[in-house]
Write a structure and sequence with these properties.
alpha/beta; Methane Monooxygenase Hydroxylase, Chain G, domain 1; ten-stranded mixed beta sheet; TIM Barrel; about 650 residues
Length: about 650
């Protein structure tokens, strides 16, 4: 798109343009030199470092972009924040129970995440939630706090149940949550066989349906959980088997990324009533698991849009504590330990994807009339007339004529009465006029619907060194918005409007929806590419789900990864460098044998030598290039060694 008029740009305007103060939540900001920084510990102002400095340091070490940065200090801060927020709300309200958080492993299963939560979270007795045998296996290895819980959800076969029960023997508080009608008998059978008394929970189906992308987690048709009748049937089975004293927990789940506090409050009321009902049935209880749903404000709008939330952490904790306390006092029962399964709120800020822009397809609308030869003019005269007569009073009329005349020229081209150069110039004139119309429309109080998407149609395409499907699958799958912005040059006014395309061969491999005010933007303001350095973008708040949901579309694998921490000496440390997938890695994932592939190419090259098509020296070069390709990064490499 044509350059915008430049003026004395300020860092404050950059903050406003990209909204980083709102969604950054004190972790990310822009420094005076126009670079995005990360604050690793919000209580220590000196724990800030420029993302550009990190990127350059990695490149100097030989670690190529794209790269995923992980900030374990931020993860620690999130664990501290949610635990202390709940405990503070309980103290202020006079709540006599306590809080125990559990992290759902499915949100980000990476070993570094689980290890850090188990280590740092131990001071708060923060546990883990598992939904499969593999996740339970990991939890049993890393959880060694007898006061923390491991909540066992998901489908359960005998092996899963046995592992959870044996976890109790190891001193780990594993809670087997009944989510389907037949699981009660299975748990009791295995408990008798192993002679281990289980801790049992029931998952209810809340009638409350929350907003956002995951509304089907609640309501009568939710996949997991027991309806009211099935809850009572499970209670009756436990009574009949003399095992009602094992029922300690009630669990419910409204969904992920719940934007509206009203739904959270209503869900807590319903669950608290169920909890009181189970106590009245004679179950000892003691644990109320409110599930997940605590949202992240991805767009910084503090609204009930699916990419935001209309409540603070304090309001979230206060409302739940108030609801449960009130109903327990009303029914004269003990205040339970509250458990939440917040995952997104813990790990979203933990990761940032850095990617470099490889090239652009800039939309040029500058028209030089001297380029129009006399031979072209008869075919182009109607378009040129529209350009001469366009003014603020006739934009709609000119737009209608413009579309008609372009279609007329395209039809003539199909029948051979307009040649290729004439058609090319007609298209150029068309978009030049569209740019003029766009400039006029921006100065008008009312923009007709036909003109509102002009900025999108006039935007550039910036080609990023990444795969949407591998690193940002929620962008493609559910239109999730992530904050995206340049990490440098922010002291300069962006002069282009662009969409992002990845390096997959797929029309869906693009991002064309961005955070905006007051609504979603179709384009992202960016700078013209600098001549002497990589232009680097950051995609923020990608710690939840994105690392494990990605696929191998076009066989683009995991990116390089590095962890960044702030040590006790006040030094920012880069560690846990993990090389991204090589070509051989991703080929092996889809059942190719890299050694066999190499042998096939060697045979082809030897045959070519025998046939005289290449020399033995050329054969060596071919094999060397092929094997180097197998060992290479799956993403675009800008600095290959000779």
């Amino acid at each position: 798109m044509a350059q915008e008029t430049q003026h004395a740009w300020t860092i404050a305007e950059a903050n406003t343009l990209y909204g980083i103060r709102e969604w950054g939540n004190g972790y990310f900001g822009i420094d005076d030199s126009g670079e995005v920084y990360v604050t690793l510990n919000r209580d220590v102002p000196t724990s800030t470092i420029s993302l550009l400095k990190i990127a350059k340091g990695l490149q100097e070490r030989g670690l190529k972009l794209p790269v995923l940065l992980r900030f374990s200090d931020i993860l620690d801060d999130r664990i501290k924040y949610i635990n202390e927020s709940f405990l503070k709300s309980m103290k202020e309200a006079g709540y006599r129970g306590t809080y125990r958080g559990v992290y759902p492993i499915k949100v980000n299963q990476q070993q570094q995440v689980i290890e850090e939560i188990a280590h740092y979270g131990k001071q708060y007795h923060h546990g883990l939630e598992t939904g499969s045998k593999a996740e339970l296996i990991a939890a049993l290895a890393y959880m060694d706090d007898p006061k923390a819980f491991v909540i066992c959800n998901g489908y359960k076969d005998e092996e899963y149940v046995d592992l959870a029960l044996r976890g109790l023997s190891l001193g780990i508080q594993t809670v087997l949550v009944v989510e389907m009608p037949g699981e009660t008998e299975l748990i009791l059978d295995r408990a008798r066989a192993l002679n281990i008394k289980p801790i049992i929970g029931l998952r209810m189906k809340p009638s409350t349906i929350a907003g956002g992308h995951w509304t089907e987690s609640g309501g009568d048709r939710s996949v997991f959980g027991l309806n009211t009748t099935q809850v009572m049937q499970a209670v009756d089975v436990l009574k009949r088997e003399g095992m009602l004293d094992c029922l300690k927990l009630l669990h419910y789940h409204l969904g992920s990324q719940i934007p509206n506090i009203h739904a959270i409050r209503i869900g807590a009321i319903e669950a608290a009533r169920f909890y009181a009902g189970l106590v009245a049935e004679g179950a000892p209880m003691g644990l109320l698991d409110i599930g997940g749903g605590l949202a992240i404000d991805y767009d910084g709008s503090q609204t009930n849009s699916s990419s935001s939330r209309n409540y603070s952490m304090k309001e979230y904790c206060d409302d739940i504590v108030e609801v449960v306390l009130g109903i327990c006092n009303e029914t004269n029962i003990e205040h339970p330990t509250l458990i939440s399964e917040s995952g997104r709120a813990l790990v979203a800020y933990y990761s940032v994807l850095l990617l470099n822009i490889l090239d652009t397809n800039a939309f040029s609308t500058e028209l030089n009339l001297d380029d129009i030869t006399p031979e072209m003019r008869p075919a182009l005269e109607n378009l040129l007339y529209v350009k001469r007569t366009l003014n603020p009073k006739n934009t709609q009329e000119c737009l209608n004529d413009l579309n008609y005349y372009r279609e007329e020229i395209r039809t003539k081209f199909l029948y051979g009465s307009v040649n290729m150069r004439e058609r090319a110039m007609a298209e150029h004139i068309y978009w030049s006029i569209m740019a003029d119309i766009f400039k006029i429309s921006r100065e008008q109080d009312y923009i007709p619907p036909e003109l509102r998407d002009l900025e999108y149609h006039l935007s550039d395409i910036y080609y990023g060194n990444f795969s949407v499907f591998q690193s940002l699958p929620d962008v493609w799958a559910i239109d999730q918005l992530f904050p995206i912005m340049p990490i440098h040059h922010l002291e300069e006014q962006p002069s282009r409007h662009a969409i992002l395309a990845d390096i997959t061969c797929d029309c869906d491999g693009k991002i064309d929806k961005f955070i905006g005010r007051p609504e979603i933007n179709r384009t992202l303001p960016l700078h013209a590419l600098p001549d002497d350095e990589d232009y680097i973008l950051g995609v923020f708040l990608v710690g939840a789900y994105q690392e494990t949901l990605g696929d191998l579309h076009n066989l683009l694998g995991d990116t390089n990864v590095v962890s960044v921490t702030y040590d006790e000496q006040g030094t920012v440390v880069l560690h846990h460098e993990l090389d991204g997938d090589t070509v051989a890695d991703v080929l092996s994932y889809v059942e190719y044998d890299p050694k066999h592939l190499e042998s096939l190419v060697r045979m082809k090259a030897e045959a070519a030598v025998r046939e005289g098509r290449i020399t033995t020296h050329q054969r060596r070069k071919i094999i060397t290039a092929y094997t180097a390709g197998l060992r290479g990064y799956t993403y675009y490499e800008t600095d290959q060694e000779d």
